[in-house]
Description:
By secondary structure, the protein is an alpha/beta fold. It has 2 domains: 51-134 and 263-430, P-loop containing nucleotide triphosphate hydrolases (Rossmann fold, 3-Layer(aba) Sandwich), CATH 3.40.50.300; 158-244. 44% of the residues lie in helices and 14% in strands. It has 21 helices and 13 strands. An 11-stranded mixed β-sheet has the order 2-1-13-12-11-3-10-9-4-8-7. Strands 5-6 form a two-stranded antiparallel sheet. Helix 15 (317-332) runs parallel beside helix 17 (353-362). The longest helix has 23 residues, at 439-461.
Amino acid sequence: MRDPMSILTDAFTSFLFGKVETTRLPVRTSTGQAQAVYLPTAAPGLGDSGVIIGREVYSGKGYIYDPFQLYGQQLPAPHWLVLGESGNGKSALEKTYVLRQLRFRDRQVVVLDAQGEDGVGEWNLIAQELGITPIRLDPMAALDMGIRLNPLDPAITTTGQLALLRTIIEVAMGHGLDERSGFALKVAHAYVNETIVDRQPILTDIVEQLRHPEPESAEAMNVDIEDVRAWGLDVALVIDRLVDGDLRGMFDGPTTVGIDLDAPLIVFDLSHIDRNSIAMPILMAIVGVWLEHTWIRPDRKKRIFLVEEAWHIIASPFVAQLFQRLLKFGRRLGLSFVAVVHHLSDVVDGAAAKEASAILKMASTRTIYAQKADEARATGRVLGLPRWAVEIIPSLTPGIAVWDVNGNVQVVKHLVTETERPLVFTDRAMTESSSDLTDDALRAAELEAEERAAAFVEQHLGDSESTVA
């Protein structure tokens, strides 16, 4: 029984200030009945138009994403960055996303496939299923009439050709061209384009002109012809690598006839190229510019440019600058650039940190699979993720990722259909050992992972900032 003085004090306080607190007796109930009292909450969705990705873990509702549908409304740019350790589902996500996008008639996809198994690229199965022959860039095959891409293809503008030549040389040399070397390259390129009209100019023509410059090029600048030859010597040696070195055959001839740039899916198989050699960024530069001038057109098609092992692009300042321009240019013509990277530290701590930051800012969509705790913290700082998302990343299981779509942050379980399953599950796909699991065991493992992730999210969303409303 309450003390009489307390009762009198409460009555006097209520008289002066009004009743400030309502005392309610506790109610004992079941969790089933409490559902009607504590209404469910769920993160805001991205709309119902586009490609189905899977389910939002916390609410269980469907998750639909399409940069072309969201662009201009919820997305300032249609570009997408995918991060995560191997074996957590990046490959499965990319492949199902492309397959589902191709269900729309106005979609077209180019994939730079840098990973390979059994002598073919990782996208070979999907290409076969769609009746597509991958464009396999292989130095050995190129010597035997394999695929060639000509940096001096007339389909590329004169300005684009010169920019591409400079990028190739700067990537190979590891530094920018000085004014004198740049001048020697410019006059050699101009002379080749002016004098060779009965066929496609090729790199051998540029090398020959650098070694034996025309007197007119020296007279125009009032310098000695020997000086022009000396200025172009290092440039000639670098280009000679594409003509007679380890990349021989792929770029030193006319572009292969029959490459179908109107196919719904175009796969460049780069799996025969050493991913750690200087050849890879050179190759990325050539393919990037070649596509810019031959593939991206104002025809109202929505195009997706997906790059595996994209750190080869972002880690090189010169190639990164080239792709940065491509991304800016592509937004006007319906291009969505998808970069797949294992670790953000691969690019933000490298020589191209400034260029990498610029490209990352253009990626309004970021999907992050499981990473180690220190890597997750670094990723969260760079991308500006909320604290709860950073905390959950190390505990994510295969197939579940944090999605940040221009600040709309959700945890999403990627779903794969039975039809897609044999096409997307490779050794690098959703789980490293997926090929050893029966379908029932795999589904059970997925369900368990989903339940654990949901429990973790619920635990952390209660006391951390989030976008859940």
